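Reproducibility note. Readers wishing to regenerate the assembly model reported in the main text can use the exact inputs given here. Chain order matters: entities are listed in the order in which they were concatenated for prediction.
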Amino acid sequence: MKIERAVWGNDIPVREYAMSINGRRITSDNTDVAINPATEQPIASFPLGNLQHLDQAVDAASAAFLTWRDTTISERRKALEGLADQIEKNYEAFLTLLTTEQGKPRAGAEWEIGGSIYWLREIAKQSLPEEVVRDDGENRVVTRYTPIGVIGGITPWNFPLLLAVWKIAPALMAGNTMVLKPSPYTPLCTLWFGELAQNVLPPGVLNVVSGGNELGQWMTEHPGIGKIAFTGSTATGKRVMQSAASNLKRLTLELGGNDPAIVLPDVDPDAIAKDLFWASFQNSSQFCVATKRLYVHEDIYDRLVAALVDYARTVQVDNGLLVDTQLGPLQNRMQYEKVCNLLQDCVAEQHRVLLGGVPADTKGFFIPITLIDNPPDDSRCVVEEAFGPVLPILKFRDIDDAVRRANDTEYGLAASVWSADVEKAQAVARRLEAGTVWINQIHVFGPDIAFGGHKQSGMGIENSLHGLSEYCNLQTIMERPLASAA
Ligand code: NAD
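Running the prediction on these inputs yields the following structure tokens for the assembly.
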């Protein structure tokens, strides 16, 4: 007898998705369709914006900037809190919509939607007061943080709403206005949020335009945009940097990663297998900071591998709208095919596959949890950012060798070290070339915690006052009394 499994989602509100430009709903003659990655069924159509739409959005943002930049901190704080309220009022509908368009199960959707609300409320408390750097009674020097103007925000498909909020909140709080473009794979939550935002913000302060990759490129070339805040792949980040040169746009680039985890021999493999599993497979590994290479000391290698395989076998991979699903599908066909190709390479290279390895012939972009046993360091599954649930587990004997191998990558986003001896772990952490290193934990973020990549994982910082300051120009004002006539 087939047991029916319970579904948690409410019906998604039936709506026609529209862009938000100058406070108004704007549709387009051209549309595309968002696909549910668990079923490959269409969810809803959305507008494909053209260059005229972008010009209108930039014009609206430029006009709004003239008054928004002069609002007080408390007015902006209220606005951000209002944005958080708009999401909170529609919490359940956002969860369902996010799972339907992105694929993640309810727990992941709660983390992202709840996180979006939390980030808006916390960034609302941040500010960068003027600094008096010199005052000798005669000469006074003040450093100010002034807004840049119109910010272009460009986001990927793995955390569509949260990563948009990571840009919107500091950009607006610093007194800028914004044109935001979501990924064409996951535009719906962002478009809906853009519409709700118009209940709270003056027209033109936040404009949301949707479209293909070319729309992103037009943004990076647009002379009316003063800064691009981009999250996406390293390859696209390089293109963004090139075209941003036209008017010397400021840039924050949060790019790819190939994060190592190093496990020292003093851990209890059974106790940490679960944490290490989720370090790698959270969001079906479509996570810039997922553990993508797991280095394990040879003394505990076999026990940890066995514990990981045992735990992985208990994890339910299915449609995220089913209550007991723990991992959903990959978000889109392009990514699914990329990961299938990587799996074929593992077979062709005769890597030992401990679990998974072969996608089932079903509807939806599902890849089985795949664990690879000690492949060579130069194999594709070690060198490339899989961005899918394929984890190479690598054996090491000597910690210096593990550190060298962990650092032997063009990426430098994050890393983790696991040990019963925190001091020993710290010594390893300090030698890793990564923007964030977690010790005995993973994926802890905060509005007050600086996040950014080293090497080709990006430039600039999101979150914290460092992140807020990236949405500002620095202005120095130097004054002294006018000299009187002798
Ligand atoms: P992507 O680079 O393909 O696309 C990201 C965004 O850029 C999309 O909105 C896309 O439409 C737009 N875009 C595409 N071409 C463009 C161009 N020439 N100019 C301007 N914009 C353009 O990335 P993706 O596949 O959506 O996301 C996956 C990648 O994002 C992974 O590499 C992942 O590691 C990275 N990522 C990084 C972080 C981080 O914080 N460092 C977070 C999430 C994802």
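We highlight two features of this model. The mean pLDDT is 97. Residues 259 and 292 are 5 Å apart (CA to CA).
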